[in-house]
Amino acid sequence: MASYASGFAPRVLRSTIRAPLSHQFQSTFQLQRAAISRRFLTTPVEQPRLRLGSVAPNFKAQTTHGDIDFHQFIGSSWCVLFSHPADFTPVCTTELGAFAKLKDEFESRGVKMIGLSANDLSSHAGWIKDINEVSKTDLQFPIIADADRKVAFLYDMVDQQDLDNIDEKGIAFTIRSVFVIDPQKKIRLTMMYPASTGRNSAEVLRVIDSLQTGDTKGVTTPIDWQTGDDVIVPPTVSTEDAKKKFGKVREVKPYLRFTTI
Q: Which ranges carry the Thioredoxin domain (predicted)?
């Protein structure tokens, strides 16, 4: 009988033996496939760590401005990608309104903004209407629809508590993340906030100013630095070379030297 089950049964017996076994194997396969499907609904696939200086993962997604390829969207600009837990949530509404009001500030720095919310497009338009009404603004940057959390998992925009306690939909909650990405598609800054805490839009602008100043001038910036403040000469540049490059150099310690640009 074992030989028959292995497919060596005579032709006359094969149909009577294979039918019940086929049904049994099919049922087992269906159960296994269902278990795998449930697992991937609740468990994110491991991805490489998003380190500073690494290339921002590319993706394709639906947005309020149509379908995009993320790297093509960035083009030769800087980009700020920031995520939100859901549409029609109070903290998110205040945040998107504040960023919308800073449109000219970001554009003057060559920065594109793009938001993400863990809902589909069907509710994004109504939410944008509320944002504009509440903040007296005109939100013009795209918002990604990420109801299945694919981008959220790709960029690790979820916290451990939500992975351990998956909600009733079987998908983890998306937290408030900020990624500053340069024209080479490199991640230059990440900020992660809990869902309960709103971001500081002025800080996002400040760090962009610092990054762009450092790139163009070859300097670093001290605590609470704002545009126009003194900057720090990097340790890799000698004081003599710094004076040739910047002019006046103020030495506080051999390793801590300030200059004005």
A: 50-213
Q: What is the pLDDT of residues 99-127, one digit of tens each?
A: 999 999 999 999 999 999 988 899 999 99
For 5, other C-beta atoms within 10 Å of its C-beta total 11
**Residues 116 and 146: beta-carbon distance below 8 Å:** yes
Which residues are catalytic, by number? 92
What is the model's pTM? 0.78
Task: Answer yes or no: CATH 1.10.3430.10 is held by domain 218-259.
Answer: no
Q: Give me the residue spans of the domains in the chain.
A: 2-42, 60-200, 218-259
Closest CA to 176 of 74, 89, 92: 92
Beta strand 78-84 with 66-69 is unpaired
CATH code of domain 60-200: 3.40.30.10
Average pLDDT, the chain: 83
What single DSSP character describes residue 27?
A: H
